[in-house]
Amino acid sequence: MFLLVAALFALIYAFLVLIADLTGYGTPIVFAVLAFVIVAFQFLIGPKIVEWSMKIKYVDEMEAPKLHQMIDRLARDAGIPKPRVGISQVGIPNAFAFGRSKRNARVCVTVPLMKMLDDAELEAVLGHEISHIKHRDVVVITALSVIPMIAYFIFQSFFFSSMFGRRDRNMGATIAIAALAFVVYFISNLLVLYASRIREYYADQGSVELTGKPHELASALYKMIYGSTRVKPEDLKALEGMRAFFATDPGRAKKDTIDLMAADLNRDGKIDPYELQQFADSTGSISTFEHFMELFSTHPNPVKRIKRLGRL
Questions:
Q1: pLDDT given at position 132
Q2: Number of domains composing the chain
Q3: What confidence category does residue 241 fall into, taking pLDDT thresholds of 50, 70 and 90?
Q4: What pTM was estimated for this model as a whole?
Q5: pLDDT for 285
Q6: Is 128 flagged in the annotation as binding?
Q7: pLDDT value at residue 86
Q8: Whole-Å CA distances, 85 to 39, 41, 79, 211
Q9: Confidence of residue 14 (pLDDT cuts 50, 70, 90)
Q10: 216 annotated binding-site participant
Q11: Which residues, in sequence order, are bridge partners of residue 84?
């Protein structure tokens, strides 16, 4: 994954140098600096934004002893400092981790999630979030997000310059640069989304390594997705910008629930080891359209995700 980060930064650097060399403009370099400043600012104040948006209340061991015990054990087994523990008051059953580093990390669960999952399922979800912290996923995705931002700034500048600027012999080059910048923006954005989906798979695997119970994580994901179907549309819309933080994407819950009911053979609302293995071995797959739509998602398709859990 770090090779992907390095390769993308090398690509955007080469793109900026090429533009500056061909046009004699220093503007792209200025945009690159601006993008880094914006992302650095977001990185610094990001935790406060998440705390405010998600209505987080941090709890001590007296207030949530079971939650602290689970997180303490998982963090110790993962070899990272124990993160700060919080409970979110939003109405979506989900969990998330955030922070600028392993020492600055927080793990939070929502009230509906704590009511919905049993202890083993909750521990599996917390293992997923602890793995995000261990793998430095927030840092990786934040770093990658600089690249499409730079390309978008360049596109905007050269596009509006071609539309409203002075007509001269450089007009063709300006339009070509704007078009190329948009292509770079589109492709790099897809690569950032791909990296986000890969990080979810790694976090799932990390949870299984910590707990040894892939079926508990599969069951928890199924419950979380089903529980999200009951959330009011206006509540989902209010948290639109936070969907990438969640363990599952609540915006796709209704469709995903229908797809995952095939794994719940006895319709008890859980996925046990036998059901997970049967689902993983089944020949059914997602459609071409769903494969295509997954390209624009921060999370893997849940059918693929749970089938993969059955193979771990």
A1: 94
A2: 1
A3: low
A4: 0.84
A5: 74
A6: yes
A7: 96
A8: 26, 24, 17, 19
A9: low
A10: no
A11: 106
Catalytic, 290? Answer: no
Exposed / middle / buried, residue 53 (Cβ in 10 Å: 0-12, 13-18, 19+): middle
E strand or H helix that includes residue 98: strand 95-98
In the DSSP assignment, the letter for residue 52 is H
Q: In whole angstroms, what is the distance from residue 191 CA to residue 298 CA?
A: 10
H-run or E-run covering 67: helix 65-78
The boundaries of the domain holding residue 9 are 2-309
Cα R_g (the chain), whole angstroms: 22
Strand partners, 107: 85, 97
Percent of the chain with pLDDT over 70: 81
pLDDT band at residue 34, thresholds of 50, 70 and 90? low
On whether the CB atoms of residues 197 and 297 are closer than 8 A, the answer is yes
Is 158 a residue whose pLDDT tops 90?
A: no
Q: Which of 233, 247, 38, 237 is nearest to 148 (CA)?
A: 38
Distance, in Å, from the CA atom of 218 to the CA atom of 162, rounded to the nearest integer, reads: 52
Contact 177, 158 (CB under 8 A): yes
- Residues 66, 72: Cα–Cα separation, whole Å: 10
The single residue of 121, 123, 129, 275 carrying the catalytic annotation is 129
> For residues 17 and 28, what is the distance between their CA atoms, to the nearest angstrom?
8
Q: Are 127 and 74 in contact (CB under 8 A)?
A: yes
> Helix crossing, 253-260 with 302-309: angle to 10°?
40
> Can you name the residues that pair with 98 across neighbouring β-strands?
106
Q: 82: which DSSP letter?
A: P
Question: For position 18, what pLDDT does the model report?
Answer: 62
What does the DSSP 8-state code read for residue 212? S
Q: What is the pLDDT of residue 75?
A: 97
170-178: long-range pairs with CB below 8 Å, 24+: 170/23, 173/22, 173/23, 174/23, 177/19, 177/22, 177/23, 178/154
Decide: 31 and 19 in contact? Cβ < 8 Å.
no
